């Protein structure tokens, strides 16, 4: 499993969405060494698995197809993605078929430490959903011992009520820095990096605020600094209140 919970704190995964191969590789090269790695989804449709080793030159790769199919097909997809070098693969954990899909994905990677499986719960573009459906998916992810749960910062607050969810790593999409605005943004349940970190996220998935910036490197640096300043202020507050 390639998602260690580090002492350095939260990690950032840059989402290379709505980009062509050359543009994605250009951004990845510029951000190399500044983040955990890169998330790809629609890029797989354009370039296929051959883009994975190209991105691996600049960081780890999170393939985010949100696999939702019969276990046989999920197995085949996971094998191809992991053999190409994917470090993390997302599988839909919702509904009655979530458990079988996750188990198929985990069986496909075996005991490999190079690749992990993350279960998706509720998309951050969905404004309303049944809380029981979210918990069903989250419980399934923990039950089968998948490596990570993907959910919004607001959903993390629900998980934090229960100690049983503390083991699994939390990946949070829908991250929007307070200084970023886009009227065409389709994400509904968003959070700032600071809010997600405070809610307990281990990995933040951030795309457009970085990739659509005139200077992606500076935007990522600014986000990292915002998080560092926030954590430092919280640590200082804790020291002030300690007897």
From TrEMBL:
<dbReference type="Pfam" id="PF00215">
    <property type="entry name" value="OMPdecase"/>
</dbReference>
<feature type="active site" description="For OMPdecase activity">
    <location>
        <position position="66"/>
    </location>
</feature>
<dbReference type="GO" id="GO:0005829">
    <property type="term" value="C:cytosol"/>
</dbReference>
<dbReference type="InterPro" id="IPR014732">
    <property type="entry name" value="OMPdecase"/>
</dbReference>
<feature type="binding site">
    <location>
        <position position="39"/>
    </location>
    <ligand>
        <name>substrate</name>
    </ligand>
</feature>
<dbReference type="GO" id="GO:0044205">
    <property type="term" value="P:'de novo' UMP biosynthetic process"/>
</dbReference>
<feature type="binding site">
    <location>
        <position position="208"/>
    </location>
    <ligand>
        <name>substrate</name>
    </ligand>
</feature>
<feature type="binding site">
    <location>
        <position position="124"/>
    </location>
    <ligand>
        <name>substrate</name>
    </ligand>
</feature>
<feature type="binding site">
    <location>
        <position position="207"/>
    </location>
    <ligand>
        <name>substrate</name>
    </ligand>
</feature>
<protein>
    <recommendedName>
        <fullName>Orotidine 5'-phosphate decarboxylase</fullName>
        <ecNumber>4.1.1.23</ecNumber>
    </recommendedName>
</protein>
<dbReference type="InterPro" id="IPR013785">
    <property type="entry name" value="Aldolase_TIM"/>
</dbReference>
<feature type="domain" description="Orotidine 5'-phosphate decarboxylase">
    <location>
        <begin position="11"/>
        <end position="223"/>
    </location>
</feature>
<comment type="pathway">
    <text>Pyrimidine metabolism; UMP biosynthesis via de novo pathway; UMP from orotate: step 2/2.</text>
</comment>
<dbReference type="GO" id="GO:0004590">
    <property type="term" value="F:orotidine-5'-phosphate decarboxylase activity"/>
</dbReference>
<comment type="function">
    <text>Catalyzes the decarboxylation of orotidine 5'-monophosphate (OMP) to uridine 5'-monophosphate (UMP).</text>
</comment>
<feature type="binding site">
    <location>
        <position position="17"/>
    </location>
    <ligand>
        <name>substrate</name>
    </ligand>
</feature>
<feature type="active site" description="For OMPdecase activity">
    <location>
        <position position="64"/>
    </location>
</feature>
<keyword id="KW-0456">Lyase</keyword>
<dbReference type="InterPro" id="IPR001754">
    <property type="entry name" value="OMPdeCOase_dom"/>
</dbReference>
<feature type="active site" description="For OMPdecase activity">
    <location>
        <position position="69"/>
    </location>
</feature>
<dbReference type="GO" id="GO:0006207">
    <property type="term" value="P:'de novo' pyrimidine nucleobase biosynthetic process"/>
</dbReference>
<comment type="similarity">
    <text>Belongs to the OMP decarboxylase family.</text>
</comment>
<keyword id="KW-0210">Decarboxylase</keyword>
<feature type="binding site">
    <location>
        <position position="187"/>
    </location>
    <ligand>
        <name>substrate</name>
    </ligand>
</feature>
<dbReference type="InterPro" id="IPR018089">
    <property type="entry name" value="OMPdecase_AS"/>
</dbReference>
<keyword id="KW-0665">Pyrimidine biosynthesis</keyword>
<dbReference type="InterPro" id="IPR011060">
    <property type="entry name" value="RibuloseP-bd_barrel"/>
</dbReference>
<feature type="binding site">
    <location>
        <position position="176"/>
    </location>
    <ligand>
        <name>substrate</name>
    </ligand>
</feature>
């Amino acid at each position: 499993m390639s998602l260690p919970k580090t002492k350095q704190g939260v990690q950032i995964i840059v989402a290379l969405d709505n980009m062509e191969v050359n543009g994605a590789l250009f951004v990845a090269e510029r951000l190399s060494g500044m983040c955990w790695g890169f998330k790809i989804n629609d890029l797989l449709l354009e370039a296929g698995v051959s883009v994975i080793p190209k991105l691996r030159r600049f960081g780890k790769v999170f393939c985010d197809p949100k696999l939702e199919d019969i276990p046989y097909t999920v197995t085949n997809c996971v094998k191809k993605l992991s053999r190409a070098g994917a470090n993390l693969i997302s599988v839909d954990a919702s509904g009655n078929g979530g458990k079988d899909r996750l188990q198929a994905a985990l069986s496909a990677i075996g005991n490999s430490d190079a690749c992990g499986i993350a279960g998706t719960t509720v998309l951050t573009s969905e404004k309303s959903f049944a809380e029981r459906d979210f918990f069903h998916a989250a419980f399934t992810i923990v039950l089968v011992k998948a490596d990570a749960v993907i959910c919004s910062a607001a959903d993390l607050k629900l998980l934090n009520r229960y100690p049983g969810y503390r083991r699994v790593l939390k990946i949070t999409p829908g991250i929007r820095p307070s200084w970023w605005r886009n009227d065409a943004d389709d994400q509904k349940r968003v959070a700032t990096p600071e809010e997600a970190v405070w809610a307990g996220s281990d990995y933040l998935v951030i795309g457009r605020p970085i990739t659509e910036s005139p200077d992606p490197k500076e935007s990522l640096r600014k986000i990292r600094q915002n998080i560092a300043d926030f954590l430092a202020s919280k640590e200082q507050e804790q020291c002030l209140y300690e007897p």
